[in-house]
Specification:
By secondary structure, this protein is α+β, with helices and mostly antiparallel strands. It has one domain. The protein has a three-stranded antiparallel β-sheet. The radius of gyration is 12 Å and the shape is elongated.
Amino acid sequence: MNFYEVLLGVISQGKEIGRICVFVAAASPFTAAVQAEEDTDKAYGSETYSHAVKVNEITEEEFHGLSVA
């Protein structure tokens, strides 16, 4: 299991309204992006969706430190 920081664009009514960073543990950068998008879409509801902009691998120490902060 690797740890990733996923930068997502948040879209509502066809316009990007912001960006959010999500930290996930996943097997690959692709699965990290999909997991982050699914988690963000659930949190924001049906009117808004997200798309992965960038995926960065981070260390386990960074993951635990950033997830708690």
